[in-house]
Amino acid sequence: MGPKPSGFTCPVPAVGGDHITLAHGEGGRLMRRLIEQTILPQVGSTFLAPLGDAALLPAITRPLAMSTDSFVVSPLFFPGGDIGKLAVFGTVNDLAVSGARPLWISLAMIVEEGLALETLERVLTSIAQAAAQVGVSVVTGDTKVVPRHAADGLFLNTTGIGEVFFPLAGASSLTAGDELLVSGPVGRHGMAVMTSREGLQFDPPPTSDCAPLFDAVQTLQKAGVPVKAMRDATRGGLAAVMHEWAQASRTTLVVHEPDLPVTSEVRGACEVLGLDPIHVANEGTMVIAVPSGSGAATLAALRNIPQCSGAALVGHVTRRGLSPVVVRRKFGPEIPLDEPLGAPLPRIC
Amino acid sequence: MKYLDEYRDPECCRRLLAQIRRTVSRPWTVMEVCGGQTHGFLRYGLDQELAGCVELIHGPGCPVCVTPLESIDFAVELARRGDALVTSFGDMLRVPGSRESLMQVRASTGNVQVVYSPLDAVDLARRTPERQVVFFAVGFETTTPATALAVHQAHDLGLTNFSLLVSHVRVLPAMELLAADPQAGIHGFLAAGHVCTVAGFDSYVDFSRRHRMPVVVTGFEPVDLLSGVLECVEQLERGEARVANRYARSARAAGNQPALGLVADVYEPCDRPWRGLGVVPAGGLRLRAEWATWDAETRFPRQSQAVSEPPECRSGEVLTGRIKPPQCECFGVRCTPESPLGAPMVSAEGACSAYYRYAVARRETGSDSTRS
């Protein structure tokens, strides 16, 4: 007799493995396992757990605010944040600066075949932590896997719903004399992503300001600050918000450059690269417009929260002149501030 | 921030301006050679502060702006080949060629990539042996050492898929043309501090003597610019004409000798067409015969024909200081940074883009006087 077979081994490799494959998106067993073992333990909620086709949400009495945003940042992890944190804070900040308390968000993921499962898990952990930090639940979601090169690692989309608790008159109500503030140093997110993506070595490196703004908004509401408008200064930075507001209100906005808070890391990196922090993106810093005379009280309220300790009064509104936005520097005449073209820093959020 | 704040000090700027105003007995016309200086003057509104004392003529010192149309067309042609990857600095991508820009080619073929250094392009060639990586080498004396080093590296690595499309330019031959042009009416020059840091300024001594014009090596911050202007007008008022260094923290008379040695090993001067100026004798650099293997123009036969500039773009007159950007009928109307007709509206150092960014008010009121 020949030797006894030592045992039967299946030639089919084990399904799953360390990387996401197209099979994870096909709606079969692998997909269910991905949802049940990887996604739900991290971001599951009362509303998500039934895994129905739609989240069934309770009725609320106040007016609603809704916002959506997609996130394609490269690299997925950068100093001060990652795509998961960004996807939660980006959407809840849009709600917060609209005077809404964020309640629920959706989470859609487009995953490139070959993404390490561990990477996806890290991002999901980050999403879960960010959602817990701001008190929102992920109530519905979707996962698609696309072939290699059809996406860059991982794209996310979040849509958020919130209840309006702090109605604002909006940017069109800005008039001469209004005061303009920022809630912290500008340009941090854009420089953090750019320097880490391009491998530019700065010591210390600029870190992203990626953070929720809801606490700051709630503080202003509780302090009774008569806020006219708020915007998170994301792509295009402070300059983009200034231009939009000037356009909406037919006024001219004046930025006082010496008062603009900029960290030394951001300033150094911007000087080397020939960029102006006023044009560089933020992800946890907002611009606030208040009526004449309310600036100091707004600043005092903001500085009560650690996240806004670097808040500053940075400008004011005047009657419409030749240019929609001008910069007042330490020296010389007021100079028009150009609208950002949008080319130098692609894919930062 | 060290090395910046002291050169942007408002008190110092006011003092220098007052000194300039006390010094001048008549308006002087001074050309700042470099586009970086133009942006510095306009960013701080120094040109307005100097009005009546010094008229600034914005020089051709923007490498992207003076790169001839046929070089851009050739880069586009290379990027349209299936096997090539054209790399360059970001600004170069948006400059319109006669039919399309590199950015448009990137959108349709993906064969164009922005790099921050020519050495990154060498690295790309090393990592993608199946592709012909071409670095579109533009720039003055400031960028030539890095591209020369890239050629050395490619040689040392034995790369056969790396080459340079050389469009390097030399600043002094262009200054010769402008100094000899009576229409330009220039009294003195502010030489580019960065170029002098590499190339030195010994070579300006003879130039300054022959043309009887002061040449002041000048930096880019407000204090640098104003102290350069002050030195220039002091010389002019005294009837002097010599080379002075007001960028001593960086520039030395003999320049950076190791860098210059590297450049001399790889390149030799040649006549080159400059956008706006025509052919400038000895105004460019080309690879020496022993490095011709790395020359894209040797490696790839050129198909495209020589073309002429779009007739309505007056960038030639802007680059030679004959007109200021707002005097061009297209400025801000048919020519904007989003949709540029010519390179000076594209480049971060272009005079048209400087006026567009910092001088909207003047654009709208048309308050600049005409020079002709």
Name some characteristics of this structure:
heterodimer; A: 60s Ribosomal Protein L30, Chain: A; Phosphoribosyl-aminoimidazole Synthetase, Chain A, domain 2; 2 domains; 23% strand; B: alpha/beta; Rossmann fold; 18 helices; globular
Provide the number of structural domains of chain A.
Answer: 2
Q: Which stretches of chain B are poorly predicted, pLDDT < 50 over at least 5 residues?
A: 363-372
The helix content of chain A, as a percent range, equals 25-40%
Number of domains of chain B: 2
CATH fold naming of the largest domain in chain B: Rossmann fold
Our measurement of the CA-to-CA distance between the termini of chain B, rounded to an integer number of angstroms, reads: 42 Å
Task: Work out the strand percent of chain B.
Answer: 15-25%
Rg calc of chain B: 21 Å
CATH class of the largest domain in chain B: Alpha Beta
- Based on DSSP secondary structure assignment, what is the total number of beta strands of chain A? 13
Largest interface comes to:
A-B, 22 and 28 residues
Q: CATH homologous superfamily of the largest domain in chain A?
A: PurM-like C-terminal domain
Q: Structural class, judged by helices and strands of chain A?
A: alpha+beta
The count of DSSP E runs of length 2 or more, i.e. the number of strands of chain B, is 11
Q: Strand count, sense and closure of the main sheet of chain B?
A: 5 strands, parallel
Query: Poorly predicted ranges of chain A (pLDDT <50, ≥5 residues)?
Result: 1-7, 9-15
CATH C-level label of the largest domain in chain A: Alpha Beta
Query: Rough shape of chain B?
Result: globular
